[in-house]
Amino acid sequence: MSGARAITPGWRERLAGLLAWRPSARAAGERLPIRDWVSVGSGKPSAVSGFDQTLAWVVTALLALGLVMVYSASVAMHDNPKFANYSPTYFLTRQAMFIAIGFVAALVTLQIPIAVWEKWAPWLFAASLALLIIVLLPFIGKGVNGARRWIPLGVMSFQPSELAKLSIAMYAASYMVRKMEVKENFVKAVWPMAVALGVIGVLLLAEPDMGAFMVIAAVALGILFLGGVNGRMFLLSVMVLVGAFVLMIAFSEFRRQRIFAYLDPWNPDYAQGKAYQLTHSLIAFGRGEWFGQGLGQSIEKLSYLPEAHTDFLLAVIGEELGFVVVLSVIVAFFWLTRRIFVIGRQAIALDRVFAGLMTQGIGIWFGGQSFINMGVNLGLLPTKGLTLPLLSYGGSGILMNLVALAIVLRVDQENRQLMRGGRA
Fold first, then answer.
1. Lowest mean pLDDT segment, chosen from 237-246, 289-298, 406-415
2. Is 258 exposed, middle or buried (0-12, 13-18, 19+ CB in 10 A)?
3. How far apart are CA 347 and CA 46, in angstroms?
4. 354 is a domain residue
5. Residue 354 pLDDT more than 90?
6. Structural domain harbouring 383
7. Residue from 366, 323, 352, 370 nearest 412 by CA
8. Coil, helix or strand at residue 158
9. Which DSSP string corresponds to 90-139?
10. 380 C-beta neighbours (distance < 10 Å), count
11. Domain contains 301
């Protein structure tokens, strides 16, 4: 695209002469349809204000709900001998601190042009790989419940897999831009990304953290698909990845037991073992009914439901606030994911392929992880150690979630500047 013009009366006619070219179809002369310039479902050109205020408010509402529910879910944890030295407000104050740190990091991130992220994407990916190696070192990585996933940093522990989710979105987008001319060639286009994904998989499974690997694999494959990789090659890649997951389950007694427990959670052999969390999560949702037992009135959080403030926070929300609020959370994440994808499509329509694919990769990350967490809580998916973005307790998760969303807002801001006739 040679330039961008402001959207004025008669914008359809003006844009007809300025239609962007898809990089994947320049040789064939294919043009973008006008619908890619407008907000999905609205039939009107996108607003050109400074940033997406609705997205910011939805994120703020989810953070506020998460802060309240983390406090509610953890207020009685000091009764557990494991947390006897913790005050009732320990997790509340730390979650508030994580949000504050994440907010400052997001403000700084918002000032960085997307062109800088594109330049540094391969180096950020390399840094995330280095951290995934460092966390496995016994004298550096912190082990919890048999998993070594955290690097202690004083005020908080950093989880490299959270950085890897963002870095894979950037690296895969940068990779597709660089490989656009050879995307039909398996050896040149798909194989190198498959090797990179395999290295990440080996490192994450060594922690172990299969849930994070599933999200990262979904982000990488999603960007390859959206970037225009040949459909047969994409299908082959998916089949290989699914086969790898099946083999990991087949050769791991621990993972097989989780699958069996998921299929029959009320079986006495599993109810007090591998299905313990799932059964108590379902009990929590059952007690909540439509409008819940009331804020703070959960029974399951009283040392019955493990990880109530992290992986199973949605179950506590369901028990205390009911189906109506749970449905509202689901709708909020659906809207957030959809809005991120719309921003990504607008960037691609403005011939900003890296920004668009990276943004859509972030959308896959948020949508995929929230779907898995909600599915686990509701008994629709086998139990995995994935938190609910923006809501669950955790410093690394909150920090990287807010940084990623700040990047999305920066992409949206640059899109609007271009549509006003300025520069990104």
1. 237-246
2. buried
3. 12
4. yes
5. yes
6. 47-416
7. 352
8. strand
9. HHHHHHHHHHHHHHHHHHHHTTS-HHHHHHHHHHHHHHHHHHHHHTTSTT
10. 11
11. yes
